[in-house]
Design brief:
It comes from Sphingobium lactosutens DS20. InterPro entries: Acyl_CoA_acyltransferase, BioF2-like_GNAT_dom. Helices cover 41% and strands 25% of the residues. It is of the alpha+beta class. Strands 1, 2, 3, 4, 5, 6, 7, 8, 9, 10, 11, 12 and 13 form a 13-stranded mixed beta sheet that branches. The longest helix has 24 residues.
Length: 376
């Protein structure tokens, strides 16, 4: 089990490089894709976003082989309940919480995760897992392991979000999934936008372009409502540094997928995706809100649809959007079910009793709340 740390000397730099190489080797053989826990983004997050938490990176090892990676943090509360617990680390820019586990060794990885958390004195309460794919390899392995060990666990929440996963090419998908009236309206908007100047769609391809693209994205996002609310990446030095580092890491590994639409050479819409394995994750979008009447966000999603469906190395893309998102839900027909789990932790003596009581109390409180709301 490792703690997040920052290099301060050449020896630590070498240790860090060795660690990153081990993590990348695991990520390249992952049973379930998750760009947010793969090293491109995880290392950037540990370097720049862990100031509010002490992040424990739990490594599952079989012999000398790394078979699992799960970053966790302690929580003083569980929702509205004053019950401490541990949970997978879901920072503000993390949209999937599935651990990286080696293909074919999923249950072994979860056996190790749970055993280490059972033994960890700092792991209070129970394990709360957010952002899990209900149909993913991790969910199946966790359920199987809890069944084998007769360990308490339950699903506590689920929702669906848009996903792009189809064998159709871009044109057929567009014609099949999007209403004719909407397609006609968007063609009209594209034509009107073209009357203002030269419109160009671009896909990032050269590393020399990367700094300018990153700067352009940060500026475009900050100029909109996120900038006014203080939630744009550039509003926080740590968020901006995380984004820059993640983009550089991913581009050098061939895992950054970044698009833009320019009007007379100036970006009016940009979209950032991160890839892992055969999948991709839609991370952030930024638009020129002064041109909102042309729906630049929808137009770049159309460009993204063509880029993804015409790339044989990308099998699917997770929107990472909120449930019921009005824009992306109208464009992508497939759905991904995201769930949360509560998993009992074990221990000896008083610690074991406290963990058992915390798990039972959380379950009973949830059951009571459902009853009061008239839910089954």
């Amino acid at each position: 089990m490792l703690l997040a740390s920052h290099p301060a000397d050449p020896d630590t730099d070498r240790q860090r490089a060795s660690r990153d190489a081990r993590w990348m080797a695991l990520a390249l053989d992952a049973a379930e894709a998750n760009a947010f826990y793969a090293p491109d983004m995880l290392v950037a997050a540990l370097d720049h976003l862990d100031g509010k938490h002490q992040v424990h990176v739990v490594e599952a090892v079989a012999g000398e082989e790394l078979i699992g990676l799960l970053p966790v943090v302690r929580h003083a509360r569980h929702g509205r309940l004053p019950i401490g617990c541990v949970g997978n680390w879901m920072h503000d820019h993390c949209f999937l919480g599935a651990p990286i586990v080696r293909r074919g060794l999923e249950q072994e990885a979860w056996r190790s995760f749970l055993a280490q958390l059972d033994d960890a004195q700092w792991a209070q309460g129970f394990l709360h897992l957010q952002g899990m794919d209900a149909a993913g390899a991790n969910a199946a392995a966790l359920e199987a392991m809890c069944g084998q060990q007769r360990r308490g666990w339950r699903e506590v929440h689920r929702y669906e979000r848009a996903m792009l996963h189809s064998d159709l090419d871009a044109e057929r998908y567009w014609d099949t999934q999007v209403r004719a009236k909407k397609r006609k309206e968007l063609r009209r908007l594209q034509k009107r936008l073209g009357e203002l100047g030269t419109v160009e769609q671009r896909l990032l391809s050269e590393e020399t372009q990367l700094p300018e693209w990153i700067d352009a994205f940060l500026a475009l996002e900050a100029a909109g409502w996120k900038g006014k609310q203080g939630t744009a990446l550039s509003c926080s030095p740590s968020d901006g540094a995380f984004f820059r580092a993640a983009c550089v890491n991913a581009f050098r590994g061939g895992r950054l997928h970044m698009l833009r639409i320019d009007l007379d050479g100036q970006p009016i819409a940009m979209l950032v995706n991160f890839r892992h394995g055969e999948g991709a994750f839609s991370f952030k979008i930024a638009i020129d809100e002064a041109l909102g009447r042309f729906s630049p966000g929808v137009l770049i999603e159309i460009a993204n649809l063509h880029a993804v469906q015409n790339d044989p190395t990308i099998a699917w893309m997770d929107s990472c959007a909120a449930p019921g998102h009005p824009m992306i839900d109208s464009l992508w027909a497939e759905r991904r079910t995201i769930v949360q789990y509560r998993v009992a932790l074990r221990g000896t003596g008083m610690e074991g009793l406290r963990r058992k009581a915390a798990f039972m109390l959380a379950n009973k409180s949830e059951a009571l709340a459902r009853t009061l709301k008239g839910q089954p």
